[in-house]
Write a structure and sequence with these properties.
With 36 residues, this protein is mainly alpha-helical. It has one helix and no strands. It starts with a helix and ends with a helix.
């Protein structure tokens, strides 16, 4: 059970990082578009 918990935690962390990077990318992309 502990091993499964660790896997879930790692997956959750990875998913959070991906979501954060997508948000950051979208913000950056929007700023770039508005500057043109």
């Amino acid at each position: 059970i502990a091993e499964e918990d660790l896997k879930n935690k790692q997956f959750f962390t990875a998913a959070t990082l991906i979501l954060e990077s997508i948000k950051f990318y979208e913000q950056y992309h929007l700023q770039f578009l508005f500057q043109r």
